[in-house]
Amino acid sequence: MLILALSGSLRGQSYNSVLARAAVELVPAGVDIELFDGLGDLPLYDADLDGEGDEEHGAVRHLRERIAAADALFVVTPEYNGSVSGVLKNAIDWASRPPGGGAVLWGKTAAIAGATTGQYGAILAQQDLRRILGIAGARVVEGDLPVARAQNVIDETGELRDPLVAERLRRHLEALVHEAAIPVAA
Questions:
Q1: In 101-110, which positions are buried (b, 16+ CB within 10 angstroms) versus exposed (e)?
Q2: How far, in Å, are 11, 68, 85, 170 from residue 102 at the CA level?
Q3: pTM of the prediction?
Q4: Residue 12: how many CA atoms within 13 Å on its side-chain side?
Q5: Would you write out the chain's pLDDT as a tens digit for each of its 186 residues?
Q6: Which residues, 6+ apart, have CB-to-CB distance to 94 below 8 Å?
Q7: Beta strand pairing status for 2-7 and 32-36?
Q8: Domains, the chain, ranges and CATH?
């Protein structure tokens, strides 16, 4: 099984990207995680640019191909002004087209998480992300993974150092793998 991890932050030492990288070590045996590192390359969504084949923008084609190749998604979001980041929403907009079942997000199983330096762990952003992914046709697993005061659980080298958070992440990934193994009803 292949899980594609998307971090909704472009910052090099993003706490959310640290969670995505930590997932590589905590995923169940026999499961691989690929970290997607191209959200910053995507143009702003514009239906006039949304061509197919050779006309499709290279970064958009790459995103869609990686999502299509994955069995599931692990999406980690920062919280900007009480919601998801613009780059993450933009990526979802690209991956949700064409609408009506033809998009790569349609039927894709996804788990969400979020980290912030505040006390709520991006729970508002995760609520919005759950709604956005659901509207786009993804199957979002139950449960979120809020990581509050991320500066206290991630060390200065960018490593997850809190065993409780690591265990919560491991269980969250197990739930994703379990749900992704359930066939989508036609």
A1: eebbbbebbb
A2: 32, 11, 25, 32
A3: 0.93
A4: 2
A5: 999 999 999 998 899 999 999 999 999 999 999 999 999 999 999 988 886 655 678 999 999 999 999 999 999 999 999 999 999 999 999 999 986 667 999 999 999 999 998 888 899 999 999 999 999 999 999 998 999 999 999 988 888 999 999 999 999 999 999 999 988 765
A6: 42, 45, 50, 60, 63, 64
A7: parallel
A8: 2-180 (3.40.50.360)
